[in-house]
């Protein structure tokens, strides 16, 4: 990068916000520690106009730009790859909530707002912003939208893109598209926002969004349920959707191995249920109405399920503290890999009705590949999103096992495709899965994606190598 | 059109499905009778492969194609304009429901399926497809999706695009994009389906879609409510969303003029409420749970609203017959224009919180333009979609009044834009609003739309003159 450009950038956003030394460290790293990040500079603009001006300068100089929010992504989407001469454009200073209209149930917030701050602002207005995920204390709205984040409440409220009414985007040529509408119905032309949502910063930089708010849940019922099989879990899901008037907000499946693993991690000796079970469901229903009605509905669902043999045991959380305790089981599951000293992690989805077949086939396939392997698929079964994770055999070294990581995730992905699924459910493609995407994606779709990229970013300066291989 | 091409088309799909004479009449007309349609032929293919082959032949010969479903659109979107040499491609024979998976809550249906048939198929599987609009007995899925139809349940279930998980599209070059996934979470690349949804056939032809199903409502509460003002109605909406646990499915606002008009049309002498009111709300809440809980919730909302002066009177429907009777009031409103011998119709939206200001300002503006004019704005206030319709002054001839139609709708649209709204909420752009769109749309957005069109349809053969002016 030329010193002329660097000084032009410093003039533009202030020298304090152009980092080129060791001060880049808080931005130039990979959350999963799988890769190194080597930006030539980290830029921290303070406004949309500054973002636009940076993009114009970089576009002229053909300097690649890697947009970044909270940098909590899991697929290398915010890595500045060595030798590319890319700058990291961190949106963290664009952190204002511009408007919140409680009557309209909408909010306009900037890309650098931390998700938890957005949730809190909604709550302060007696409203609810339902995007919720593990990284919510650190991740930022722009990243959530650019990666179309999922999380635990997708079943009820949809993915991140479903919560968006409008966007402000800096295009790869530095123009600003102000599409910050707060309309529930608008059929005046092509819906362009969905192009940028989930594009991982490869088509432009989301600088702000207008999002939907919802009535605040006043009653939440959480239950841990023992089920004999994934098929029973899927049947229970159908009962629960109908029997709660579609108030079901979360439905997490986990096998015994994961359940036991979480108990170890959490240091809980006692099994909360009366007897071991091969599978468990953590389910939650929520309602904007306070009162005992919802509990009655969930209880009725579970009684029916018990009669039908779909459920063998269940406990309810009777306080917020108990709810928290149940959720900790689920939240500890990503730690199991470290705990057992070696696991392959995946993020896949299949149609809900195919979960049982997919699990059976994939458990069989990875076990055939390596006897003694320990699959523990868990996740958001309510929307078909399974983190099909697989631990090393007890008698194999972690490093030796992880040498098979690619082969094992290929086996999982092969089964995903055979069951009509997706190799990326909620984490995105980043640079980790870009080559695989190019290999497996429907050629017509891939061609359309490439044309879209070439049209919006002909010089390929926006987050190069992510989503689409160069 | 050359006779060679015609005979090639007849060889392709069978001569019985290539119409060129008076047998074109059932397809070559405008639902609103505002325009004439002059296709050189009407083509009725029987499969996606036939659609693709037609498009390839027409693309080679540069023959424009106007796709058509049930032909119930209101903005001239399926008109073959005179002199363009366009063919009408009617999708009516692609009318199979390919799959219905009740466990997965999904269905894959072809573009020519009549909406009511899709609703019935869902119901037969104890599921629910919530798209519902006046034309549902005639309109077809492909048209619903191409125009991103709204309707009365948008408040609860979203617009047509929100119900779609995947699409099959014939592209302008005749390639078929098979994007018929049934996944709730899929972050494997750009989300292309939203480009074709709402594009009114200008970017390709939707031939099939995978759609979301929902639990079937088992309890529906319908109430007609007298409110003193639009501001009271918007406040009631907030109470009702919260107080029913977000079970509110419809929230229709209408002024006294429209209410009285509907009573005349329906021949109902008796006012169902005890005293006249300046404004009315027809609201509906629905739940997948049978039982008295929902009625209690709606009653509690209305009692609170009564205490707060937001509501002056209300009646509940106590049977399905009474529900039907209340809905007939709303459904008769589009007839008022004919009844009073001259009205200007619009389809606009504003943010929900701005409805009261928008209504007041627009009533004042049209009245300033023409004293004695009779505005009767009504519609889906729950999602900000108002049909701001305006009747002729009693002492003016209908024809003389309608000479002002453009000027009057321009005044309405000016107020819409001043209130952050859209000139097309649910009907689309078609050819009626294409020139206006080119005039008022944000230039960056318009430029992106044009680039998208040029990229996908470089020869401009797909529904020319619709959405984007030539």
From TrEMBL, chains A, B:
Organism phylogeny: Bacteria, Pseudomonadati, Pseudomonadota, Alphaproteobacteria, Rhodospirillales
Q: Which residues cross the membrane?
A: none
| Matches recorded under InterPro entries | FAD-bd_oxidored_4_C (IPR004113), FAD-bd_PCMH (IPR016166), FAD-bd_PCMH-like_sf (IPR036318), FAD-bd_PCMH_sub1 (IPR016167), FAD-bd_PCMH_sub2 (IPR016169), FAD-linked_Oxase-like_C (IPR016164), FAD-oxidored/transferase_4 (IPR051264), Oxid_FAD_bind_N (IPR006094)
**Protein known as:** Hydroxyacid dehydrogenase
What protein family is recorded?
Answer: Belongs to the FAD-binding oxidoreductase/transferase type 4 family.
Gene3D superfamilies from the entry?
A: 3.30.465.10, 3.30.70.2190, 3.30.70.2740, Uridine Diphospho-n-acetylenolpyruvylglucosamine Reductase, domain 2, Vanillyl-alcohol Oxidase, Chain A, domain 4
Q: Which GO terms describe its molecular function?
A: catalytic activity; FAD binding
Q: What are the BP-aspect GO terms?
A: respiratory electron transport chain
Q: Which UniProt keywords apply?
A: FAD, Flavoprotein
Identify the cofactor(s).
Answer: FAD
Q: Quote any Pfam family the record assigns.
A: FAD-oxidase_C
């Amino acid at each position: 990068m030329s010193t002329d450009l660097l000084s032009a950038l410093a003039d533009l956003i202030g020298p304090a916000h152009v980092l080129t030394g060791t001060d880049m460290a808080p931005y130039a790293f990979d959350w999963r520690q799988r890769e190194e990040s080597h930006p030539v500079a980290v830029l921290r603009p303070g406004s949309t106009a500054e973002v636009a001006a940076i993009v114009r300068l970089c576009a002229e100089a053909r300097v690649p730009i890697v947009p970044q929010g909270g940098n909590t992504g899991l697929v290398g989407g915010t890595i500045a790859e060595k030798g590319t001469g890319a700058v990291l454009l961190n949106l963290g200073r664009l952190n204002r909530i511009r408007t919140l209209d409680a009557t309209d149930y909408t909010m306009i917030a900037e890309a650098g707002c931390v998700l938890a701050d957005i949730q809190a602002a909604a709550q302060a207005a007696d409203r609810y912003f339902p995007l919720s995920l593990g990284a919510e204390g650190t991740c930022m709205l722009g990243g959530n939208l650019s990666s179309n984040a999922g999380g635990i409440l997708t079943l009820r409220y949809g993915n991140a893109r479903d919560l968006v009414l409008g966007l402000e985007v800096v295009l790869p040529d530095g123009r600003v598209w102000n599409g910050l509408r707060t309309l529930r119905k608008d059929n005046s032309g092509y819906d362009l926002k969905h192009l940028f949502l989930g594009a991982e910063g490869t088509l432009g930089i989301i600088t702000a969004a207008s999002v939907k708010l919802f009535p605040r849940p006043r009653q939440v019922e959480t239950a841990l349920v023992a089920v004999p099989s994934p098929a029973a879990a899927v049947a229970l899901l159908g009962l629960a959707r109908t029997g709660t008037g579609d108030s079901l907000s979360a439905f997490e499946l986990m096998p015994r191995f994961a359940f036991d693993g979480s108990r170890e991690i959490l240091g809980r000796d006692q099994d909360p249920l009366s007897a071991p079970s091969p599978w468990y469901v953590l389910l939650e229903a929520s309602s904007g109405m306070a009162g005992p009605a919802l509990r009655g509905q969930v209880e009725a669902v579970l009684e029916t399920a018990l009669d039908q043999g779909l459920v063998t045991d269940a406990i309810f959380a009777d306080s917020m503290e108990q709810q928290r305790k149940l959720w900790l089981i689920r939240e500890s599951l990503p730690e199991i890999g470290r705990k057992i000293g070696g696991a392959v992690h995946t993020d896949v989805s299949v149609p809900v009705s195919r979960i049982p077949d997919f699990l059976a086939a994939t458990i069989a396939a990875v076990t055939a590949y390596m006897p003694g392997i320990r699959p523990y698929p868990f996740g958001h079964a309510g929307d078909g999103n399974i983190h099909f994770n697989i631990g090393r055999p007890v008698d194999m070294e972690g490093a030796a096992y992880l040498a098979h990581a690619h082969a094992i995730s290929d086996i999982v992905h092969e089964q995903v495709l055979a069951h009509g699924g997706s190799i990326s459910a909620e984490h995105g493609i980043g640079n980790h899965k870009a080559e695989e995407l190019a290999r497996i994606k429907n050629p017509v779709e891939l061609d359309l994606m490439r044309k879209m990229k070439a049209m919006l970013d002909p010089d390929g300066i926006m987050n190069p190598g992510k989503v689409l291989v160069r």
